[in-house]
Amino acid sequence: MTSIKAKWMLVLLLTGTLHLAAQDLMGLTEIKQGVKTKRVSSYDPSGDNHDNLKNIKPGEKRTIFNVAGAGIIDHIWMTLSPEPNVLSRNDVILRMYWDGNAYPSVASPVGPFFGQGWNDAYLFTSAALAATPTNGNGLVSYFAMPFAKGARIEIENQTGGTINALYFYIDYQEMKTLPPQTGRFHAWYNKQLTMPVDSVENEHWMFGGNPPNKNGKENYVIADIKGKGHFVGVNYYVQAPTPYWYGEGDDMWFIDGDTLPTMNGTGTEDYFNTSWGAPKQPYASPYFGYAKVNDDIGFLGRTHIYRFHIADPVYFDRSLRFSIEHGSNNVLTLDLASVAYWYQDTAARIPSIPDAAVRRPMPLIGPTDIHRWRNEWRKSKGNDTRLWGK
C-alpha cells in the first residue's frame, strides 16, 4: 500500500513539474535581443581551486554581489561550512538591495529564506526554492530578481562562530533596460511566540466557547506591505508544544486598507492545499507541500509548510496585510516563523526582522516533558495509587 501511495505522489509531482517544464521549454523558443548571461560566484580568481569566501567572522558582513546597471538575477545557489549542526543558518542573515537603495528589500536568515526552518537540515523541493542533497545543504533559488540601477547582496554572520567557507553562484541577465512594468522582488522574515488571547488554550472548544475573531487583530502576521504589487508565496514554520492539532487557524487577507478581511480562509491546512490535519510523511509539489513533518505524538513538534502563488498571485494596489490565526480564534501558544515573498512596482523598504534572541527556536517538547507534567499532576492529586490519567 505504501509503495502505491508513493507512486501516486510521484505521478502528481511529475505532472506538475512537466507542466512547468512545458512552459519553460515554450519560452526557450524566444530569441532575446540585448541580453547577456553573467555570473558572480565564489570562484578563485587565481585559477586555483579555493573557490569560496573564507573566515567570515562573527558580526562581519560580506558583499557577495554588487553589479551596476540593469538586469535580472534568475538563479542563486549557495552552501556554507560548517554544517548546520555546528553553524546556525538561522543566524546568517541575507539582505538584498535594489536600484542603489540604502535599505534592503529582502531580509531573512539564510536557512528560512531557502526553506530550512529553525536551523534544521532536510530536503526541500519546489518550483521556486529548494534545499538539496546532501541533507539540505545546497540552497537554491529560481525567483526572478530584477534591478534597473544596480543590485547588491550581502551576508551577515550573527552566529557567534566563524563561517569557514561560503560557496555561491549568482547568475543574472545583463540588459540595457528592464522590460516595462517589471516589479522588484521582496522577501521578509517574521517570528513570534504566540499566546492565547484569553489565556486558555481552548482548541476545538475543549473548555467552552471562544471569543470571536473577525478583524484578525491578534493573528500572526505573515506580510504587511505598503504599495502596489502581488504576493507570490510563503514558507511557514510551525513548532507546537502540544499534541493537539494546531491547524484550525484561518488565513485572512486585508487588501488596500480593508478593515475586515477581503478574503477569509477556513483553516491552515486548507490554505496550504491539504486537508484534515498534517500528514506524517513529507509531501512535495511545485507550488505547495509539507517539506518537514513532526511524526511525533499527535501534532507535537516542528512542521514546515509552503505555498507559492505562481499560478494565482494575490494582487493589491495600495497595501496587503496577510495574517493567520494561531489555532482557531487565536487560542494556541505556538512558535511561529515565516518568510513571505512578493513583487512591488518599486523597490520598497521592508520592516526590520526579529533579532537573534527572538529568532532562537523554543526547545522541543518530548515524552520526558510530558512525563514530568504527569508527575506534577499526580502530586497535585495526592499521589493516589489509583490515578491513571483523566
UniProtKB/TrEMBL annotation:
Gene3D superfamilies: 2.60.120.1390. It holds the Pfam family DUF2961. Keywords: Signal. InterPro entries: DUF2961. Residues 1-21 form the signal peptide. It comes from the Bacteria. This is DUF2961 domain-containing protein. It comes from Niabella pedocola.
